[in-house]
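for the writeup, i need someone to sanity check this before i put it in the appendix. the sequnce is what the collaborator sent (i think, or maybe the updated version? ugh). structure was predicted straight from it, no edits. if anything looks off just tell me and ill rerun, i have time this weekend
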Amino acid sequence: MAFSGLDIYKLLPKTNCRKCGFPTCLAFAMQLAKKAVSVEKCPEITAAAKAALEASAQPPIKLITVGEGEQKLEIGNENVLFRHEEKFFHPAGVGIIINDAASDEEIKNRVEHVNKLSFERIGQQISVNLIAVRQAGSDKARFEAVVKKVAELTKLGIVLISADAASLKAAAAHIAKRKPIIHAANKENYQELAAAAKELSLPLVVKADTLEELSELIPAVNSAGANDLILQTGDKPVNKKIWDLTQIRRMPLKKNNRVFGYPSLTVIKSNDTYEQVIEACDYILKYTGIVLLEGFEAYQILPILTLRQNIYTDPQKPLQVEPKAYPIGQVNENSPVLITTNFSLSYYTVLGEVEASKIPAFLISVDTEGMSVLTAWAAEKFTPDKINESIKKFGIPEKVKHKNIVIPGYVAVMSGDLEEKSGYRIIVGPREAAGIPSFLKNIQKAG
């Protein structure tokens, strides 16, 4: 946990020597607390105090990197329990499990399918991050062969899952440059796997049944040379697993217990198609750094990725699109003009419905600082003056020859004022975006 300015001041020599460039040690301490200066600027500080300050400056939850290049996944380094306090920085990784007992053709097809599990939602690309290869039996050669094949077929990060330490070490060595996760060290094999993780510079999952056992195992793994860890507790009901995940997150943040200062991982055990989705969402909501499941159909993965996107969006900075007039389809001077806000979800919802109508149109995204229609209207960010300004700024008078503007049905109350200020005929559109296709078709018929 980071020290306050007064905590830092207590560790300083209190000589007010000014060698640091500040008039007093207290002033220097306050700047240190804000991370505006380095502790190196104090020439009088003791080695013990310096070590304490450097340790306090470390993130409470270590940042762990998996994979490489554009597919690199970073987890951990979070600072809060609740995102409204600040925000969550590193979205949880979602991975699909493949068993090495499957046929080569089945493995190939599954990997290719997983590679395509990418979706565009409100202007962002959301996708699966990992493929986990699980050793089903004890055939070391088969496990190695499948790991190599999967590495050839995908650029996603890889998790190696086996109960056999020798198989894990051999497979990890083949793809070490891809920075895979080794899963998992326990009280029986931790020395062997910790040594391998240290030698190959790879992240290592440390697994124990309970938090108490995990708290004893983590220091032992650290002493054996592995420091890039991911934590996992044993199989248990969802409510108990959520308790474990919450405590793993809470202890370094609220109790300054750095033993648990690592991200966590969960593996979905359910065979039920829908339970897998529900469990994965539960664990993402309650702090897991990585969730692995066998389900890989688009209808299973999309809701998981959607929830993750929502949770890891800064609540103080809504997703926004650039305010401007967007042409949809082959527009011309007779194309209708619709108004919405620059809140991404509003814009892309309206965009989809206009595209579905097959009627080319201009869609004006008014700058409402990322607020939705009703929120922006209530906050006076979506007003007749703002809309009129946008109509002129984005060149609508030059783009179309008609004088019609369609506004959202929820703000029909502003139609008279907007008509007076803009000189345009204001048409009140549907309240719900789903009504846009039929609405536009009726406009087109009416001429």
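The two ends are 66 Å apart (CA to CA). The chain is about 40% helix and 15% strand.
thx in advance!!
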